[in-house]
Amino acid sequence: SMELSATYRFAAPPEAVWRLLTDPEVVASCLPGCDRLEPLGDDRYRAELTLAVAAVSGHYTGTIALVDQHPPRSYRMLIDGSGKAGFVKGEATVELVGDAEATAVTVTGQGQVGGLIARVGQRLLGTVSKMMMDRFFACLQGRAGTP
Asked: Residue 49's closest CA among 126, 147, 107, 128?
């Protein structure tokens, strides 16, 4: 299994950052490799992604659920996906701490990966996940600058 944690800073209050993080259109447009993200109801979404890890590129489908929501402070995200090259199951806790001027978003997650992708890219997976997360949050930070 792999673990991941990072903190991202926004020049916006927690309420504004929360709205971005929970807006399916914003998430879909900022998530690297996301082909589509459709709401299933009950804060669950079906996601389709095209990702390349090491020499293994592939199409993945899965579900993302936002649970234990305490707006605008925290939520947990459950991820369950699979494709020809393998599967991923993960969970992340997202915490927002801030004031009227700024917000720090801390993401702490862990996941299990199996199948071909795990054998080929085990060492790379953490790096790729972190890179995707960094790109996602950089995109969100750009959105936070606009009303």
From this structure: 128
Q: Which helix (DSSP H) or strand (DSSP E) does residue 112 occupy?
A: strand 103-114
Q: Which residue reads 């900022």 in tokens?
A: 30
Summarised one tens digit per residue, pLDDT across range 26-66 is 999 999 999 999 999 999 999 999 987 766 788 999 999 99
CB 61 within 8 Å of CB 82: yes
Tell me how far apart the alpha carbons of residues 142 and 126 are, in angstroms, rounded to a whole number.
24
Residue type, 141: Q
Query: Tens of pLDDT along 73-112?
Result: 999 999 999 999 889 899 999 999 999 999 999 999 999 9
Strands 103-114 and 86-98: antiparallel
CA distances from 97 to 16, 94, 100, 126 (A): 12, 10, 11, 25
> CA-CA distance, 30 to 25, in Å (whole number)?
9
